[in-house]
Amino acid sequence: MRRSAWARRVVLAGRIPEAAGLTDDRDLALDVRGALARPPPRQRATLVLRFYCDLSVDQAAQVLGCSAGTVKSQTAKGLGALRRMLGPAGAWPQGRRLCR
Length: 100
Fold this sequence. Notes:
The chain is mostly helical. It is 55% helix and 4% strand. The protein has a domain at 41-84. It has helices spanning 5-9, 26-36, 41-52, 57-64, 68-86; strands spanning 23-24, 96-97. The protein is globular, with a radius of gyration of 16 Å.
């Protein structure tokens, strides 16, 4: 099997934790909820369906009555908006989780 150019360029360093952090961060959860209320309804719906309800792209498209491409683009735009509102990933506390 031949590797793609991407697989040859990307090296994953470090270890991904097996479990979420042990403590809840209520302030962080409130920040995320507040940020999630700001994107347009379609972006918010795709984010909730994809990441909170854990639906696939096709399942979310069926629920919303749109194409899989629309779900993908709205999800990408919604994630971008959340990242801008919440700041850089390095600013997030390590080992914290949003809810139980």
